[in-house]
Structure prediction request, 396 residues.
Amino acid sequence: MGGNSIGEPTTDRFADDPAFAVHEGGKLSMVCTRAIGSMADLALTYTPGVARVSSAIAAEPDLARRFTWAPRVVAVVSDGTAVLGLGDIGPAASLPVMEGKACLFKELAGLSAVPVVLATTDVDTIVETVAAIAPSFGGINLEDISAPRCFEIEARLRERLDIPVMHDDQHGTAIVVLAALRNAAKVVGRPLADLRVVVAGAGAAGVACTKILLEAGVGDIAVADSKGVLHAGREDLTPIKRWLVENTNRAGYAGTMVGALEGADVYLGLSGGSVPEAAIASMAPGCIVFSLANPTPEVDPGMAAKYAAVVATGRSDLANQINNVLAFPGIFRGAIDAGARSITEEMKLAAATAIADVVGDEVRADYIVPSPLDGRVVDAVATAVASCAREQGVTR
Prediction:
């Protein structure tokens, strides 16, 4: 309880908000797996017994996979520059999110996870710091790092480390979007190759979703940023946007995102803002709308339902929640179980297929992805990812 200037108690302004009660004191603690109830326990857990184990690992480094917790611990790393829909709020403010992510790893996949928030936004410093602490972990989950820095950070760490590294805001989102679109396409009776998709947002999630949809065989994609659809005539393109221009927008459309929606089969919103009703009404009959800004979708779900055959959002209180939690726990567990040195594109595609297959024959307009709390999801994803890693020969 706080006090005012004359020592009288004041009301705790957080007392009536249940979210703050959940986070009081943090959401994590470390639990020992070996009791220390005697001097003999102490001698084995610490010195002198521990010296024999450390010496063995020094002689044979791979023994660390058996005799330390590191192989089954994921570092959840952020610099706090792109947190949820809150933006650049800094490392301390991002810590509750990273703790929550660690809770999901443990509760859903049985993996321990440690939040690591960094008081720097310098790419070189982040890469060097994560590389330096990597021996303590079996995987690196990059989280809430702003684009375009996130692309370089992930790429450099993937090249440098021999443990799974994944920027979840990119690939977790992309994997679940692909799973959802596979099933939505079944609902409307269309193959992926026949779909024309408009992606609103060319940040981390937009780029990753575009790449995985292209890999899965989606027919054509137009990607729009705040200045309109990316096309060859634009002079303000970053390297990643130039790649998008070279691989999307086959018609060379140079207009607005709203204009691109006319006759389109799929809207994929990853940018915030709002889309006018007339734009959704102009889409093809039986269209699909994935409006993923959270908490306020770009397209009002009720309005979208008037025109679209399938509607999905990022919200847990509506049908068809496209949520990264369907992907990342199982992906890391599968990769770690298999001893994978990396997470490949094929492993991501396998994860998307596994998520879609959990729905199976029950697929319908309001059920294109399973619930994040469906116990089948993590096991299905982990099994598919581990099998794919072994088939590709990327395991230890």
About this structure: Residues 281 and 307 are 6 Å apart (CA to CA). The chain has a mean pLDDT of 93. The beta strands are 73-78, 112-117, 139-142, 165-167, 196-200, 220-225, 228-229, 266-269, 287-291, 308-313.
